[in-house]
Amino acid sequence: MTSRDKNNGIATFTVRELAEELGISKQAVHKKINQLPTELTPKKVDAAYQLTHEIASFIRDSGKIPATGNQPVNQLINGEVDALKMMIKELQEEKEKIYGQLEKKDIQVDHLQKLIDQQQQLTLQANRQNERLQLQLQFFQEKDDEVEEEETDSPERKKWWQFWGRKN
């Protein structure tokens, strides 16, 4: 596949030969040539580039162009696409899992809020009942105090037989 440069006897490649070897288009090889460092710029002979082994190796190694041509670029792209699809699927599953956990937490928060409301109602009822009992206790204590006052104010009444045995 290589041709010999007439001046130096160095084996060189044409753009077409390198493109066929790598399994890519001639246009892709031209793009790679334009991206080469200045010290690797190939010579043009009869309006065609003559690529040395060094230049061809650099082009093979640059980017993701397979050196053997066995695996086309499309397969590399398909592999990347498949990997990205797998990552997207995993991220969607993780997102769904997190949303499920969030829904469970919302239900738990609602349940706890209901329990707090119930506890507040029970506390309010207990406080009201406590106030009623205190009022009743106060009422009965006042009644008891009134009864004690009446007993101390009135003289002790004696029965009729108690007057006969009295000596004054």
Structural description of this entry:
The chain has 168 residues and is of the alpha+beta class. It has a domain at 3-71: Orthogonal Bundle (Multidrug-efflux Transporter Regulator, Chain: A, Domain 2), CATH 1.10.1660. Helices cover 67% and strands 8% of the residues. It has helices spanning 15-22, 26-34, 53-61, 73-153, 160-164; strands at 3-4, 11-13, 43-45, 48-52. A 4-stranded antiparallel beta sheet has the order 1-2-4-3. A hairpin with a 2-residue loop joins strand 3 and strand 4 (48-52). The longest helix is centred in the C-terminal third of the chain and has 81 residues, at 73-153. The model has no long low-confidence stretch (mean pLDDT 82).
Low-pLDDT ranges: none
Helix content: 55-70%
Q: So what's the overall shape?
A: rod-shaped
Order of helices and strands: EEHHEEHHH
Query: Total number of helical segments?
Result: 5
Number of strands: 4
Roughly how many Å apart are the termini?
160 Å
| CATH topology (fold) name of one domain | Multidrug-efflux Transporter Regulator, Chain: A, Domain 2
- For the largest sheet, list the strands in their spatial order: 1-2-4-3
Characterize the biggest β-sheet.
4 strands, antiparallel
The name of the CATH architecture of one domain is Orthogonal Bundle
Beta-strand residue fraction: 5-15%
At the first level of CATH, the class of one domain is Mainly Alpha
Helix/strand-derived category reads alpha+beta
Output the radius of gyration. Answer: 53 Å
Mean pLDDT: 82
